[in-house]
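User: Predict the structure for this protein chain, please.
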Amino acid sequence: MKNIGALNIPELCGNFDKALLQKAAAQFGTPLYVYDLDRITAKYEQLKLAFGGRKAMICYALKANSNLSVIKKMASLESGADCVSLGEIKRAILGGIPKYKIIYSGVGKQEFEIKETLKLGILFINIESKEEMLLVESCAKELGIPARISVRVNPDIDPQTHPYISTGLKENKFGVNLEEAKGIYLYAHNSPYLEPIGIHFHIGSQLTKLKPVSESAQKIAQLTHSLLALKMDIKFFDIGGGIGITYSDETTINPYDYAQAILEELRGLDLTIICEPGRFIVGNSGVFLTKVLYQKEHQGKRFVIVDGAMNDLIRPSLYNAYHQIVPLNAELQETTSADVVGPVCESGDYLGKNISLPPLQSGDILAVLSSGAYGFSMSSNYNTRPRSAEVAIEKGEARLIRRRENFEDLIALEKDYL
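Assistant: Here is the predicted structure, written as structure tokens:
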């Protein structure tokens, strides 16, 4: 536990302390996202070390947190990038990620995106269906640029995570089954415009059990052996991401055990392993700061109304996700249960329910922990609310890495059409 004055913030929130967070809130205002770049570095190095001694590449999943300063930090660590849109690819390049370390995934790639991606010359495109493969082939033929591809194979393994972030079951929209994958590889192998160089699986996010990962790797490794027997030049074994983090009291996967489980299934395969972490690197490296506006009691129910809302951090409303909420400047007193709610006009607008909190006053700052992943990146302008500012802390110094939006930003694309 890291002491922050009268209260304790668990180690899961990074190297932040009370004074640092309060100073950031005072300097940059609330609601506010704060990221610990030193902890981001440590988490990346931890995972990289777990695969030490084997050919491996860490490709940070931009969807978790796509702030350019975070991407720049990942680039400085020699990370690659896992992208699910042309926009994310452009962000990765702008942030300094080399093109040859960028992967393009996602089930709905459009023709113009595929063509621009081929022109950019990234590492490979992850194919999610036969129809998509045929479109990629057509684009490659038209441009005269052979397309390096991987196929996302759905192993139909239960990841034992939230159903909204499960991706490896047959009822999920992602990837193709084993038999269909074989057909796609055979077609691609015989096409002059397709170069199948990788194989990929990703069974879900916030994984806390090792067995589903191991079972999936085993299935995909068996398919890889059969592809290599057919003289296909498969070079990359992409294991996806999804390693879970601690939000409350979860028992998480040790990175070394994770790597060893994968390596055990890859015996006899001399391939480069690609790992695509997002949440693991940035989740516990960020906090969301919000200010208490009012409190009220309604038929025995306590509500703490804050300036942050579901448009800022939607995970609690969308997934019923739990985030620890810690007051920064309240004295340690007897606590009572409260719902922490925002100003948005929805009953689902809450950051936490039945949270034990001490007496609070207007102006007190609450830290919503473990908010570095899927926080700002999933935020919106619902109710015409400007999105939060973002701040990075490195070596004890805070700096603004995205200014707070204002009303003019929100109407910029509309006002000329009045």
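Residues 2-35+283-412 form a domain with the Lyase, Ornithine Decarboxylase; Chain A, domain 1 fold (CATH 2.40.37.10).
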